[in-house]
Specification:
Layout (H helix, E strand, L loop, with lengths): L8 E5 L3 H7 L4 H21 L4 E8 L7 H14 L2 H9 L2 E6 L7 H14 L5 E9 L1 H14 L9 H6 L11 E4 L18 E4 L9 H12 L8
Parallel strand pairs: 1-2, 1-5, 2-4, 3-4, 5-6
Amino acid sequence: MPKAKIPFHLGIIIDGNRRWAKKKRLLFFEGHRRGLNNVQKIGDYCAKKRIKILTLYAFSTENWDRSKKEVNYLMKLIGKSLDKKNIKKLHQKNIKLQVIGEKERLSQILQKKIKEAEKLTKNNKKGILNLCISYGGRAEIIHAVKDILKKKIPVNKITESLISKNLWTLNLPEPDFIIRTGGEQRLSNFLTWQSVYSEFYFTKKLWPEFTEEDLDKALLDYSHRQRRFGK
């Protein structure tokens, strides 16, 4: 396979865990569990491919509307992924972890795990892993506007750059490339502000079955794109 051009910032919309479980005649819990395992595998492969920033859409603001049983299980899985043992492995790989979203909606235990993980990895330089948990692009923009109003910044000083600096992603560069698994072809409230010039790639592969080879295929497709940014 020809060498692919590597995006500096890759976003992935994780989709298809429940449909994968249904296809396999398994409970949806197993789909989410397999999905989490794939997050770790694909995350490691992205680091190997020298992708500097990886942003994963793990749990949206809309996902709170799912059944209490499913939400509780998802929170349990997220908590497990943030256990000290897993974060220590991430730290040893020199990866910085950031969680972006409405963290105040999460349990106190989960908030504590996030705080500890971010503190431990904050100075790591090899790469950045952004986990979007309780995240919504519109909610993020509203949050940014409220912060700007609190600072009493004059209207004529409000710029695109200022809004970007007040988003949960702060000063991170915008995503070059966004992949969505599961066959749907929409953003579903993911990085609404930041994705205006991102390249998109949609695959029918359900997330638990998305492989390193599938990522290579997507990256090769990205290599053939010519990004003009409206020019």
